[in-house]
Design brief:
This protein is mainly alpha-helical and 207 residues long. It has seven helices and two strands, in the order H-H-H-H-H-H-H-E-E. The chain is flat and about 75 Å long.
Length: 207
């Protein structure tokens, strides 16, 4: 991934420079004008990274695009989670909202771990079934199907790993914040919230 090179701008390019370069490179690489679809996609991705200050800062510091889930960056995920929790609380003075967000992230991690183990277990069973399945003549469509299942499970594991990376970035960002609680924790009242990250939905019950 080389967003600066794909757009043809320098590292100190302004937002106006990036906008102008994007319009030029978009026209040059557009498939309808004979451009390469791969180059066109690279230009689009490069623009999305560089035009957003937070995404650009992350790329400059890490050399890769900021991880995202369902189109949400870690910052947007945290902000949305905080907003959802705030809306459900009677008072924001008596509960540590950031601790509650961390609980949500840990719930996501647990689900990702379970899903990863399930896929890995399936792959082992698919591979064993392939070795045991033969056909006297013709195409072995059963093993072909099982091999496709393995590829699908491997792809799912790759996406799950991205989910772990996303959770790591969220956790690191949360560590930069503090939340002041003014009063002792009240007696448990309880509410339940669902949060979705990637293909994983996790529920957290808060007393």
């Amino acid at each position: 991934m080389k967003p600066y090179e794909d757009l043809g701008v320098s590292r100190d390019a302004t937002s106006d420079d990036i906008e102008a370069a994007y319009m030029r490179r978009r026209s040059e690489t557009h498939p309808d004008k004979g451009g390469d679809p791969s180059d066109f996609n690279d230009v689009q991705k490069g623009y999305e990274i560089l035009i957003d200050p937070a995404s650009r800062k992350y790329f400059d510091e890490h050399g890769e695009a900021e991880p995202s889930m369902n189109g949400l960056t870690p910052m947007v995920f945290i902000s949305n989670s905080v907003a959802s929790i705030v809306e459900k609380l009677d008072s924001v003075n008596t509960r540590n909202i950031l601790t509650m967000v961390r609980s949500i992230v840990e719930g996501v991690r647990e689900k990702l771990i379970a899903e990863s183990l399930a896929h890995k277990s399936s792959i082992i069973k698919y591979e064993s079934a392939i070795k045991r399945t033969t056909r006297s003549t013709g195409e072995n469509f059963i093993t072909d199907m099982l091999e496709r299942k393995i590829l699908s499970a491997e792809s799912a594991i790759v996406e799950i790993e991205k989910g772990f990376q996303f959770a790591d970035v969220v956790t690191a960002l949360l560590a930069e914040f503090e939340y002041r609680v003014d009063e002792p924790e009240p007696e448990p009242r309880g509410f339940y919230a669902n949060f979705r990250v990637g293909g994983t939905t996790t529920g957290s019950r808060f007393p």
